[in-house]
Design goal:
The chain contains 9 helices and 18 strands. It has about 325 residues and is α+β, with helices and mostly antiparallel strands. The strands form 5 sheets. A 5-stranded antiparallel beta sheet has the order 16-15-14-17-18, sandwiched between helices. The chain has a 4-stranded parallel beta sheet with strand order 2-1-6-7, with helices on one face. Strands 8-13-9-12 form a 4-stranded antiparallel beta sheet, covered by helices on one side.
Length: about 325
């Protein structure tokens, strides 16, 4: 270890990606305190005071106590929301949730340590319109895109593209229907779909279809890059590989130098140490940026390719090579 201190991990209880990091930190004998925001306030207690120039105090559950002054870094892996007593009124619950966010969350953000990723910057980076602008500014090639709630604008965009276009949600859309888990993925849009009145009900993102030789998941952490080709051998997977993991084969690849440099510039401009990038590689070998996830999963890539992404994340949390 490069210095004393604990790694605070904030994540949901069942998170295989987080488990990989915990196991590696344990192997390195780095002290870890793992918690979920859902444990607060019923199973997680906080007591902190400000004196001098820093916050001092503890975070405790029924197993361990964390000295907040000892935290060297925080791994922020999609923790779930705080849970409150069953009998609390809706009005009181709303106030309690707000106070937990600004009090508990605010205290953690005040810790003088590195975050992976910083929650505020990660939340900003989830906005796809911002991603596309920053990607282009960073020198990455971005598909032509339209955001609209006007059917006529969608039809005009399709006419201008003169070829297939796709619809994709701005954020993950998952839920249940008829007792089954469902999700909305990228879909190729037919011309008749663009006259549907539902387009007027909210913002929609349409994008030109980019012909694919394959896709690439590029994971960047602390200035290091790991890239793997994703070949999806199904019709659904060819449109959106997330819809059919069983069809995948993977191959380690080296991104072109300008793409690698652009990805790192993009993270720097977004203020992020980590990003899981998705690219389409055309039959001509051109790399087109699709999106970046500031806390994206990587375990399936590491398992298939043995790329040392977990080790790189733990290096960053320890401060090795930084």
């Amino acid at each position: 270890m490069t210095d004393a201190g604990q790694v605070l991990i904030l994540a949901g209880r069942f998170d295989p990606t987080c488990d990989l990091v915990v196991e590696e930190l344990n192997r390195r004998a780095v002290p870890v305190f793992r918690a979920d925001m859902a444990e607060f306030p019923l199973r997680l207690t906080l007591a902190a005071s400000f004196s001098g120039d820093r916050w001092n105090g503890t975070l405790s559950n029924d197993r361990r106590t964390l000295d907040l002054a000892s935290v060297r870094s925080v791994y922020y892996r999609r923790p779930t929301r705080p849970k409150f007593p069953e009998g609390m009124s809706p009005e009181a619950r709303k106030v309690a949730e707000t106070e937990a966010r600004w009090g508990f969350g605010g205290l953690l953000s005040a810790l003088p340590c590195r975050w992976l990723p910083p929650p505020g910057k990660a939340a900003d980076a989830e906005y796809k319109p911002l991603q596309l602008r920053v990607a282009a500014e960073a020198g990455l090639c971005v598909p032509r895109t339209l955001i609209t709630n006007e059917p006529r604008a969608a039809r005009d965009f399709a006419d201008m593209i003169g070829g297939p276009i796709v619809y994709k949600p701005f954020f993950h859309v998952r839920g249940t229907a008829h007792g089954q888990t469902v999700a909305v993925y990228t879909n190729v849009v037919q011309p008749d779909d663009l006259s549907h009145p539902d387009i007027a009900t909210t913002a929609h993102l349409f994008q030109e279809w980019v012909p694919k030789a394959h896709e690439v998941r590029l994971t960047a952490i602390g200035g290091r890059i790991f890239a793997a080709e994703i070949h999806a051998d199904s019709d659904a997977g060819h449109i959106d590989w997330r819809s059919d993991y069983d069809s995948h084969t993977y191959k380690i690849c080296d991104p072109p130098p300008d793409v690698a440099a652009g990805a790192l510039r993009m993270l720097d401009r977004l203020g992020l140490p980590y990003g899981a990038f998705d690219f389409v590689v055309t039959p001509e070998g051109e790399w087109r940026f699709l999106e970046v996830n500031p806390s994206g999963q990587y375990g399936f890539i590491e398992q298939a390719t043995e790329l040392p992404i977990t080790a790189a994340i733990c290096d960053y949390l320890e401060g090795i090579g930084q």
